[in-house]
Amino acid sequence: MDVLARLTAEKPVVIFSKSTCCMSHSVKALIFSFGANPMVIEVDKIENGVQIESALVQLGSRPSVPSVFIGQKFIGGADEVISLNIQNKLAPLLLSAKAIFIWG
C-alpha cells in the first residue's frame, strides 16, 4: 500500500491502467475530456507492475485496472468513474482536487 500512497501523492489524478485494456482507455479519455492531465501508470509496462496490481486488488479494485485516484482518494474503477460522471459528480471532484480549475 505504501507504493500506492507514494505514487498517488504526486498528482491530483492518478489512473492505474494497462495499455491493452479498453476500459482503461475509456476512463482515461473521460478524465482527459474534462481538461485534466492525470498521471497515467501503465502497470503492464513497468517493472513493479505486478506489485502495484496486488496492492490495488487489496484496496478492493477488481479487476485491478482501471483504478482511479482523485485528490489522493481511491475512487474505484470504470463503473464508479462512469457512474460519478452520469450523476454529475465527477467534475466537482476534479475541481476540488485542483485537477481542473473551471467547469461549466
Number of beta-strand segments? 4
By secondary-structure content and strand pairing, the structural class works out as alpha+beta
What's the average pLDDT? 95
The CATH topology turns out to be Glutaredoxin
Give the strand content: 15-25%
SSE pattern, N- to C-terminal: HEHEHEEHH
Distance between the termini: 36 Å
Low-confidence stretches: none
Tell me about the largest β-sheet: 4 strands, mixed
SS element count, helices: 5
* Helical content class: 40-55%
CATH homolog superfamily:
Glutaredoxin
Choose one word for the global shape: globular
Biggest sheet, spatial arrangement of strands: 2-1-3-4
CATH class: Alpha Beta
- Gyration radius over CA: 13 Å
Number of domains: 1
CATH architecture: 3-Layer(aba) Sandwich
InterPro entries: GlrX-like_pln_2 (IPR011905), Glutaredoxin (IPR002109), Glutaredoxin_subgr (IPR014025), Thioredoxin-like_sf (IPR036249)
Family: Belongs to the glutaredoxin family. CC-type subfamily.
Protein name: Putative thioredoxin-disulfide reductase
GO cellular component, one term: cytoplasm
